What we know:
The structure is a single chain. The chain is an alpha/beta fold. It folds into two domains: 4-226, 4-Layer Sandwich (Metallo-beta-lactamase, Chain A), CATH 3.60.15.10; 232-302, no CATH class. The chain contains eleven helices and twelve strands. The strands form two sheets. Strands 1-2-3-4-5-6 form a six-stranded mixed sheet. Strands 7-8-9-10-11-12 form a six-stranded mixed sheet. A hairpin with a 3-residue loop joins strand 11 and strand 12. Helix 7 packs antiparallel against helix 8 and helix 9 crosses helix 11 (278-296). The longest helix is centred in the C-terminal third of the chain and has 26 residues, at 220-245. Zinc ion (ZN) binds next to loops.
Amino acid sequence: xxxxxxxxxxxxxxxxxxxxxxxxxxxxxxxxxxxxxxxxxxxxxxxxxxxxxxxxxxxxxxxxxxxxxxxxxxxxxxxxxxxxxxxxxxxxxxxxxxxxxxxxxxxxxxxxxxxxxxxxxxxxxxxxxxxxxxxxxxxxxxxxxxxxxxxxxxxxxxxxxxxxxxxxxxxxxxxxxxxxxxxxxxxxxxxxxxxxxxxxxxxxxxxxxxxxxxxxxxxxxxxxxxxxxxxxxxxxxxxxxxxxxxxxxxxxxxxxxxxxxxxxxxxxxxxxxxxxxxxxxxxxxxxxxxxxxxxxxxxxxxx
Length: 303
Ligand SMILES: [Zn+2]
């Protein structure tokens, strides 16, 4: 794909969490893995010839800890690197206490396995708006594409040299042979924004889609179609589950009926996502979205 997948080996696992090395005069790593992966990422970059003085950019697709948790340590290890992050994420990377507390609430018993986040010095952070360009070399830039839905602080990045789009979690996750899974943790899930983000990525006509979990997603047109359909399925399930039961459990049942996780994922990916607690987190995230829409008095299907 012209971009190198770096396995950040969260929890020692292979093929679950990806970062990307984008080479040029000013090389970038896109995403860092969690704090507990910092040493593995440093080693992976060293193996690829990227020493402490070589990395120019640490680019974050969003500030969930499995994507950004090692950024503080990597910023120390690569003192010339600037950290590029969505404006909604910038202050949390500089002062991570609230982000860490919120993450502990979402990840529950598994939180210690992610680690926390060391602060990045504010003067080394670039808050990147939609369309922000990260210069890698004379013929290569990473262009930020605003991509909320999974998180309000999410960007995808278009690599102008290859036409690849590194999507973070904006399109869902696909790993270990399973179907595309719409990971939708609380608190930011926004179905309408998610569909708009799929459309925004599609207009770039990506040659390759690189996911946060894991690697090359497969045929871009097919994956974009699946991602779009999944937002609609999850919105319907959230609305109907909430109206029936008004609880996370009822929404979880509706999500499972609409998208039977074990059958769609296969045994390996299902076991991984269960241990990660991302399937139950998705029920919570979809339920929270449905509850807020009901409370706001709007029609959730239109949001
Ligand atoms: Zn995420």
